[in-house]
Amino acid sequence: MRTYDINRPVFDPSRMSYDFSSAYNLRLFANKVRARVQLNVRDAFSHAGSLRAIAVNPDGSPSNFRIVDGRQWILTTTFDL
Hints:
The protein is an all-beta fold and about 80 residues long. The protein has one domain. The protein has no helices and 5 strands. The strands form 2 sheets. The protein has a 3-stranded antiparallel β-sheet, with no helix packed on it. Strands 3-4 form a two-stranded antiparallel sheet. A hairpin with a 4-residue loop joins strand 1 (about 20-30) and strand 2. It is rod-shaped, with a radius of gyration of 22 Å. The protein starts with 19 loop residues before the first strand and ends with a strand.
C-alpha cells in the first residue's frame, strides 16, 4: 500500500486563461432579416495542445494526464425575421 507524506505537498503553478468575443449586428434583404455575426476566441494565449498532469503518485511523479486544447476560434451567425 502506498503512503502519502503530508509534509511534502504537491503544488501546481497557477494559470490564467483569456476568452474574447466580438459581435456585429446587421440587416439583410431590404431590412427584413436581422443578422448577428459573433466571433469567440477561447484561451486566446494558449499554445497548441499539450499534456497536463492531473494526478500524482505519492513520490510526486505524475500518474494521470489530460490533453489540453489549444486556442479555439468559434464563428457563429444567427438570423431573425
